[in-house]
Design brief:
The complex is a heterodimer. By secondary structure, chain A is mainly α. Chain A has 8 helices and no strands. Chain B has a domain of 149 residues. Chain B is 75% helix and 0% strand. In chain B, helix 3 runs antiparallel to helix 5 and helix 7 packs antiparallel against helix 8. Classes of the chains: A mainly alpha, B mainly alpha.
Amino acid sequence: MQTTNMISVKESSLEKIEYQNLPGDFALWIFIFAEMLVFGVLFIAYAFSRAQNVALFNDSQLTLNRGFGAINTVILITSSYFVVRGVAAIKKDLTHQCAYWLSGALVLGSVFVGIKMVEFYEKFNAGISMSTNNFYMFYLSLTFFHLMHVLMGMVILATIIARTRRGAYSAKQHTGVETGASFWHMVDFLWIILFPLVYVIR
Amino acid sequence: MKYKSQAVAKLYFIAAIALFLGQIIFGLIMGLQYVVGDFLFPAIPFNVARMVHTNLLIVWLLFGFMGASYYLIPEETETELFSPKLAIITFWVFLAAGVLTILGYLLVPYAALAKMTGNDLLNTMGREFLEQPLPTKVGIVLVALSWLFNITMTMLKGRKTAISLVLTLGMLGLAVFFLFSFYDPVNLVKDKFYWWWVVHLWVEGVWELILGAMLAFVLIKVTGVDREVVEKWLYVIITMTLVTGIIGTGHHYYWIGAPAYWQWWGSIFSALEPIPFFMMTVFAFNMVNKRRREHPNKAATLWALGTSVMAFLGAGLWGFLHTLAPINYYAHGTQLTAAHGHLAFYGAYALVVLTMISYAMPILRGRAANPERAQIMEMWAFWLMTVSMFFITLFLTGAGIVQIWLQRLSSTPMSFMAVQDQISIFYWAREGAGIVFLIGLTLYIRSFFVKGESKAFE
């Protein structure tokens, strides 16, 4: 058996990279890459399906509420900015400010969820479901799957806010804040691709 | 062993290996029936042999999971098992129920068995893998609850670790999803829809949590790598498992009458199911490379690495082969599925149980590791079983591809039985590989009886 006979037990180079370049916990980055892969495949599937029936996709796309989508884009980008300020604050040991900024992001997150709910409500009232056509199937799947990530991001933010208030983080030790921030930025980033792709690009 | 109550695991492991042997014998019988149709007819018809083969698999794996958790949980929680007595009672109840059920399959015509066991009270029988009579199904629920209760109570009074938490979560899922085996609607679409909630959500969902926890436990033990590192990997792996595996159920919904969007959902999410398995391979090799100690039980390390590789190949790669809806349109229900089923069950679940047995059994018998000679024999058994299972998979894959071609793709498609005649060469080859597997298993069992100077604890 070769594996156990290996001679040297050396430090993996992976370990060194993790703390030099990536903010937050390395394990989360593996998770982020995997998540982006999931969304990437979904986006490609959308493009592939659209190419087969451009007219249907264009027609159905017109029924979406772009106003809601645009507002939500601004909301998420702003919330990401708040998170950036939160991380900057904890790096200066400003615990209270950090908690305030993150709470701001959390509030914006819930506004996003609220708007999304109104949007879904409109669509369901119009009798649209996943079985209506391929465009709506993708629209509902992608936005719903993204919404789940927003909710998960909010749970993470809420946990970090609570821990910040308890003084769990400091200028020296704030990996947790960076980890949560990284996840939130991913949620924002995915929306920045999702919104134009599904709502706007024709 | 550190805790006296861990000893109950031994019973479970012995039963698991005995039933494993039974499973393989019935596998060989039905493998031969593929080419010699009336072999052992009418004593053991094909449908009965198949039922015994698959049911024994599930039962011995469950014995393995239970034994493994009774061994693992006291060590993880650093406290004795809540009730070793309950664990022993549960063992005998489960063994009796299992043996009686198998005897029922073999000795009574299935329809008569259904009548005898009150299937008209609550119709649950007659479905693939869920053939068990009603009393057995109730028994499985009781056994699972007793297991869950015992483990949870132990955990509550002891140290809480990620490994024990993930394991318990997996067991809870196992118990909950089995409840869907009691739901058998008349509507065939609904029947199949929820049938997968047991079958798929077990093997591509909650069982993977049990697998991950067991593998992580053994890796901590044999490599001495920091628990923190192992636990982080475990969390990432199980999160990906659940993200891809749950919606991945959709890859069974393509052609059964479920809404069409499942073709997209199922294809996309299940195509990503190999990712957590790949992570598991990277994880296992990484841990072994970074090991901080040379554990005398070399065989256990081999089983653990083998699990991570074969699970990726069998569950990940062979699953991916036919998971995309446009491909599955031609491939569903062919020998390709059988190929995937064999390597996935062997690679992921049979191997992880054997990993756990390989690590724990010497300790349960009062030594850190088995004598050198026994370990060498055990490793031979590993290679014989693993390589022959890989060949079984290759032959079935060949059979599947030819079957798809002749039966579904060609311009002059042939009937099912005519195609079966055409691919008999693959079945003969598979039977040959199966015999090598049995030799490997025999060697494995013999390795427990090899005497010699055993390795003491450090």
